[in-house]
Amino acid sequence: MRMIVGISGASGVIMGYCLLKTLRQLPDCEIHLIVTRGAKVTWALETNIPYEKLTELADVCHSDENLAASISSGSFVTNGMIVMPCSMKTLSAIASGYAANLLVRAADVCLKESRKVVLVPREMPLGKVHIRNLKEASDLGCVIVPPMLTFYNNPGSLTDQLNHVIGKVMMQFGLNHEGFVPWEGIE
């Protein structure tokens, strides 16, 4: 399996870190990481984790400015892409096909090659332009997985909430996440 992970400048960059840790545990999962300039700023503001701890979770770290990277071509086959978190700026660019950086170009390539693109948008409340862009991205084939709180599984911590969102993202690729607690129904 070969996955692309994009981390954009929205609040919640720790979600991308947790996703990378989860993907790293999968056997034979090659991870290609793109971290935008805005994400690097947000990383420094929101975490005390050295940036190298993030990048060492990937097999390949691509510069967001390198539009000639391997993942910028459809001939470089991947299983798809996850943008977690996805800023409204990145969402807008993906929805309009404005591939001014590698993260958006990689998403554009995945969409044109009919590969799965999962966006984890971070904004609240959503404005009309955000909702329009989410709908447009969905119409283009993106799967939208907002990091919404869950309660049916009795979460006791932020980690439980993160595991739920990561589990929902992983399900889009037919993958299981051991920290995810599915609904079992009521007998």
Characteristic terms for this protein:
40% helix, six-stranded parallel beta sheet, 187 residues, 6 strands, alpha/beta, 7 helices
Strand count: 6
Strand order of the largest sheet: 3-2-1-4-5-6
Query: What are the segments in which pLDDT stays under 50 over at least 5 consecutive residues?
Result: none
Q: Profile the largest sheet.
A: 6 strands, parallel
Q: What is the N-to-C order of secondary-structure elements (H for helix, E for strand)? A: EHEHHEEHHEHEH
Gross morphology: globular
Strand content: 15-25%
- Oligomeric form: single chain
Task: Offer a concise description of the structure.
The protein is an alpha/beta fold and 187 residues long. The protein is 40% helix and 16% strand.
Q: Could you characterize the architecture of this molecule?
A:
The protein has helices at 13-24, 37-46, 51-55, 88-96, 102-112, 128-140, 158-171, and strands at 2-7, 30-35, 60-62, 80-86, 116-121, 143-144. With 187 residues, it is of the alpha/beta class. Strands 3-2-1-4-5-6 form a 6-stranded parallel β-sheet, with helices on both faces. The radius of gyration is 16 Å and the shape is globular. The model has no long low-confidence stretch (mean pLDDT 97).
Can you lay out the helices and strands and say which pair or pack?
Layout: E1 2-7, H1 13-24, E2 30-35, H2 37-46, H3 51-55, E3 60-62, E4 80-86, H4 88-96, H5 102-112, E5 116-121, H6 128-140, E6 143-144, H7 158-171
Parallel strand pairs: 1-2, 1-4, 2-3, 4-5, 5-6
Helix pairs in contact: 4-6
